[in-house]
Amino acid sequence: MGGVRVLVVEDEPLLAAAIAEWLRDDSHAVDVAGDGGAALERLTVNEYDVLVLDRDIPVVHGDEVCRRLVESGSATRVLMLTAAAAVTDRVEGLGLGADDYLTKPFAFAELAARVLALGRRSRPADPPVLRRAGVTLDPARHEVFRDGRYVPLSKKEFAVLAELLRADGATVSAEQLLEKAWDEHVDPFTGAVRLTILKLRRKLGEPGLVETVTGVGYRIP
């Protein structure tokens, strides 16, 4: 699958930054909130595939954040983090509606694997390999080929191409690409999408593959 949109809610700044950096290295778009109030605001504005939620956070407790999210009917999957290792604590967290539970301290590789697994569950399943118009994208291997030729892509180019292939010929707007491949701090007026599309076209080569639908977005017909 392409990148997962993740909200990390953790009140320890160094840990939050480390989690975000690790997930971004896996081509995910990551936003960070330091308390439950800020988390609820972001969840109202943005659509996330996965919420990495520390249970013991200020302003609004993690339990309440999880409860409100579940009651809203959101498709966002919840990975709850806690320093409490007792079985009763894990049962309570899952009983609130969390989809998974991870005890601190944890290995970043395990957290990343769990986020990816939850991300798959939050959206319709993609085929193991995406194919269209002679392009083959393998999410697991992070490889792209066009007509048998290997195409080296940056993380953002890979994420954008995955979204275009997933659309199955439909047009994808710049706003949708920003939402899926970038975090909330990107300036929508920087031309980031246009520049990434330009680089992607150059790397994919001729004949041109990614079409611009004027005033609407981009597509691979």
Automatic annotation (TrEMBL):
It comes from the Bacteria. The modification 4-aspartylphosphate is found at D54. PROSITE patterns: OMPR_PHOB, RESPONSE_REGULATORY. Residues 127-221 bind DNA. One of its GO terms (biological process) is regulation of DNA-templated transcription. Residues 5-119 form the Response regulatory domain. One of its GO terms (cellular component) is protein-DNA complex. Keywords: DNA-binding, Phosphoprotein. GO terms for molecular function: phosphorelay response regulator activity; transcription cis-regulatory region binding. Residues 127-221 form the OmpR/PhoB-type domain. InterPro entries: CheY-like_superfamily, OmpR/PhoB-type_DNA-bd, Sig_transdc_resp-reg_receiver, WalR-like, WH-like_DNA-bd_sf. This is DNA-binding response OmpR family regulator. It comes from Kribbella steppae.
